[in-house]
Specification:
TIM Barrel; EC 3.5.1.25; eight-stranded mixed sheet; 27% strand; alpha/beta; metal-binding; N-acetylglucosamine-6-phosphate deacetylase; Metal-dep_hydrolase_composite; Urease, subunit C, domain 1; 24% helix; single chain
């Protein structure tokens, strides 16, 4: 069915375009001029956007779980639970995501990663799975955050250690992002091999100096994991990973940032945005307690406590995860930075797609892209949502 969306403010080429149309067929965005003038076709269906903002679906590159399910915890019903969460994320505007595993034992990776390979989005599957984000275990113990110390590892034997940890099948077929601390033994030398495998290397949970962080970028790292968290605070003599915001090393990496107002102060979000606006990526870092009542839950093998506005390691003040949705996080990013609506939306659509190298099919409404589409009100509330061209029932 050929569908035309009209009377919306369509996000294209970094601006909201009025008096334009969006054409969809077979789950893809079509070139309207080619359809109308070249193919001389009329739409089978027309949808009035009623003045809504029309933008791509949100992409979350770091989410540990939701609705009571932890991606790092094996279970007999794992695949069914994964689908349940994927469907649930659609209701919050997330149409694609990287299920994130915290630092775990090798046997857990060997069991779970084959289940987390890329999977297309649909009404049946829910949000598209872009591949797994393995956050650890090749990270710095001093900056482990809520990660279990006993699971942490080094890569003293190089890429062999990394392959042994994740398993070759999972590493080759499922892993899309890997968070590492570049200063840990053997890690820096593994980055080029990981990049050749099509894996996005992200720096995080790290005590790296700025020099070490910049060398990791030269080796191929292109992302920072939850900026400001699990890394040294900014120091004027050596700003550490945060110093990459002002680095002359090209290209400056993208950075995930948690916009719940707890993990990162709103002013710090604005500092990062002002320094490197094209690198900003809104992530949730949400965990299993997202969508649940306050109480005690698990993150991997760690007990955590969900409070009204945060999740802590149980019995401590150590932050363990976020309970904000991607929709709420984008709204906060707009508020914290004072950026334009277009820039806020691109921080959860275009930028994550660019970081993963998939902007030819995700994160834009250009011809050829997947028809994952949101209709938003001016306050960024979701009015309608489409996954692969099919409308999602939001009730």
């Amino acid at each position: 069915m050929l569908t035309k969306i009209y009377n919306g403010r369509i996000l294209r080429n970094h601006r909201l375009v009025e008096n334009d149309t969006l054409w969809i067929e077979d789950g893809k965005i079509k070139d309207g001029a080619e359809v109308f003038w070249g193919e001389r076709r009329l739409p089978d269906r027309e949808i009035d956007a009623r003045g809504s903002i029309v933008c791509p679906g949100f992409i979350d590159l770091q989410i540990n779980g939701a609705f009571g399910f932890d991606f790092s915890e094996p279970s007999p019903t794992y695949t069914n639970e994964l689908t349940r969460v994927s469907r649930g994320l659609l209701k919050h505007g997330c149409t694609a995501f990287c299920p994130t595993l915290v630092s775990s034992r090798p046997d857990v990776y060997h069991q779970l990663l084959p289940l987390l390979g890329p999977r297309p989005g649909s009404l049946t599957n829910g949000a598209e799975i872009l591949g797994a984000h393995v956050e650890g275990p090749f990270i710095c113990p001093e900056k482990r955050g809520a990660h279990e110390t006993a699971t942490l590892r080094t890569a003293s034997a190089g890429i062999k250690d990394i392959k042994a940890c994740y398993g070759e099948e999972g590493l080759n077929q499922a892993v899309k992002i890997i968070t590492v601390a570049p200063e840990m033994p053997g890690v820096l030398g593994c980055i080029p091999d990981l990049v050749k495998m099509g894996i996005v290397v992200s720096e995080g949970h790290s005590n790296a100096t700025t020099d070490q962080a910049e060398e990791a970028v030269r080796q191929g790292a292109r992302l920072m994991t939850h900026l400001y968290n699990a890394m040294p605070q900014f120091h004027h003599r050596d700003p550490g990973l945060v110093g990459l915001l002002g680095s002359s090393v090209y290209p400056r990496p993208y950075y995930g940032i948690i916009c719940d107002g707890v993990h990162v102060h709103p002013n710090s979000v604005k500092v990062a945005y002002d320094a490197h606006p094209q690198g900003a990526i809104v992530v949730t870092d949400a965990m299993a307690a997202l969508g649940l009542e306050t109480g005690i839950y698990t993150l991997g093998k760690i007990q955590v406590e969900k409070l009204a506005d945060r999740v802590n390691v149980a019995g401590t003040d150590t932050l363990a995860g976020n309970v904000y949705t991607i929709q709420g996080s984008v709204r906060n990013f707009l508020k914290f930075t004072g950026c334009t609506v277009e820039e806020a939306l691109e921080a959860a659509t275009l930028h994550p797609a660019q970081a993963l190298g998939i902007a030819h099919r995700k994160g834009t409404l250009q011809p050829g892209s997947d028809a994952d589409i949101l209709f938003l009100s001016d306050d960024l509330s979701i009015q309608r949502l489409f996954i692969a061209g099919d409308e999602v029932d939001m009730d």
